[in-house]
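Take our chain:
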Amino acid sequence: MPRTYFGTDGVRGPYGGPVVNEAFFRRLGEAVARWTASRGGAPGRIVVGRDTRASGESLSRAFAAGFTGGGGRAVLLGVIPTPAISCAARLGGASLGAAVTASHNPAADNGIKFFGPDGAKLSDADEAAIEALLAADSGRPAGKAGLVEEAPEGSATASYVEAALGMLPAGSLSGWRVALDTANGAAVATSPQVFRALGAEVSCTGDRPDGRNINLGVGSEHPKALSELVLSSGARLGVAHDGDGDRCVLCDERGGILDGDELLTILAVHALASGSLANRTLVVTVQSNLGVDRAVEAAGGRVVRTSIGDRYVAEAMRSEGAKLGGESSGHIVNFAVGPTGDGLAAALMAARVMLDTGRPLSELRKALVRFPQISESLRVREKRPIPELAGLTAAIRQLEGELGQKGRVLVRYSGTEPKLRFLIEGPAEELVARGMEKLLAAARAELDVP
């Protein structure tokens, strides 16, 4: 079902643009209230959290005003990791949860994504239904806003922190040094709190948000800062989040960076060895390296692939009877913990494998032997349908013929940015690199690339 405002992960765009502004967020709040009422007879209560962007507070209040204007109750949680909002909705009896965030995007962007009463992200059909109400309400005057409540400081994260602490035995990280990069974002308080409570000595970077520096040279998109901190502090484990705390990129004790594919392989192979991987199945997206499939299959499991986005991973996990899945970007979903990506939980799962095996990350990561892979992206002015790009589609078909069963080609538009993304895997680096050059040249010839 086509959607105008919602992308791969909620609504997102430049703050002050045609979509991400206070007026639109108020309209969106009313539409969400009406949609919620259409499902349950009343809008109920929504919990609204945000990351550290300067625009987050006013957007949160505008959305909450719209929701109360639609007849619902809204509770502002303040700065809080996205998975903690999911937890608050699920454990607090809310009708919905909303995270005002643009995740790993720069501070100039913002957005919003939603969680149902079960803590899971809304489906494509749900988002399309909300958009239909937005369209129907385009000329309707705004309702009178009701009282917007504010959660007491610290109360919103209490259940989330308690659940995280329960993932490892008390004091199990005593004697550990852990390096944390919280991307000047929403996990700036919670992740250090949990690791210290488990006994670790924690060194931090990316922990001084000022409203403008979220993801700026730090976090999961810029792991060099984490690697340097691990080496300078002598840490056993390094963890980098994105701006809203639902991703996790790891660093081993030697300063080597591990992405989501490596972490998923470590977790799945360990769970297969102990007989605890549900249905012996790991769910990943089309973006993950083929080496993940080979490693999991060699350990006696199977891999199911789905579209990009952790909500699609979660949907496939439910249909396949799996409990572990994720993305190469570091969104890791473990149904034993919660129904959505959780960067802190993912880091604690890795620490648990290290404790169980007595092995460092630099050894555990050897479980994944990658296929040669190259990823690139082009910023475009217009997302023209790929099938209409004759030169590019011809180049893709030719490359797929050369790779055969020993590789793959993935070309798609980003759901959150004006970019065309390319991924090629194959048996030899030279073939992959040459193929990427041809695809990029074909795309530049047919698209308006600034």
In short: The longest strand covers residues 73-79.
